[in-house]
Design brief:
Distance between the termini: 70 Å
Strand content: 5-15%
Strand order of the largest sheet: 3-2-1-4-5-6
Number of strands: 6
CATH class of the largest domain: Alpha Beta
Shape: elongated
Largest sheet: 6 strands, mixed
Helix content: 40-55%
CATH topology of the largest domain: Endonuclease, Chain A
Order of helices and strands: HHHHHHEHHEHHEEEEHH
Number of helices: 12
Number of domains: 2
Structural class: alpha/beta
Oligomer: single chain
Radius of gyration: 22 Å
Length: 280
Amino acid sequence: MANIKDLNPDESPQAALGARLRQKRLDLGLKQKELAQKLGYSPTQLSHTETGRKMATLRFVRKIDMHFGLAGTEESFERQWREIKFGALLEGFPEYLELEERAAEIRLFEVGVIPGLLQTRAYAQVLADAAVERKDITPEKAAERVEYLIKRQQALDRTPPPLIFAVLDESCLRRPIGDDPAVMRDQFAHLIKFARLPHTSLQIAPYTLGARRPFNRPVNLLTLPDRSVVSYLESQAQGQLDRELSSVLPRVRNYHLLQTESPSQAESVAMIEQLRKGIT
């Protein structure tokens, strides 16, 4: 008789998913080989997931949900998988990230903080550490958050790269992040480097825009390879992924207005350079 490894669901979230999968399989009287065949995977792959040796893929958990009739439910394995992979991210953001990885064009508007795709590791670490101090997340989750952000940035380093348009409210530059002046100095240098790339555009929306600034909260717009457009809007407590043309197109129009009203990239980079030189 084959050795059956004892599972400890409390060992890690990954182990908890694996233990739950094994229990579900046993409750239905299925052997690993039987379930693996039904899912189109090898028994070894299934075993590694059940024992927590390897993290399941999104495709894998979706097949599990389809087989067990859990797709789209509160008890779905996909929901558990997303909680493990993305942590306490706002609703809609995990789906947005999946679309971002294959977008042809990315348009960003941010208020108060440099957007994640343009953050240096040091800048992101300060924000993560502050969340730990507020008891919003654990130190482990903070480390995962920073590492995931870096991987997210690296995922866009592909051929051909997506066109990235970024308009930052002036508050993103004026708000100091970190006690070490080097954090902001290096962040400004990173923005200047970003602006020089052949597939990017960077503009600063100054305070003087006043009421002419069309957005009062962060806005992300993605143009997908089929030229469809989706938007993602975020508040402090809620995120919204929107595919409805009737609501997305006005945001695209307003984004173009924002770019028109904002200073040119050359003027914006000059402003960033001046701020960078003023840091002591």
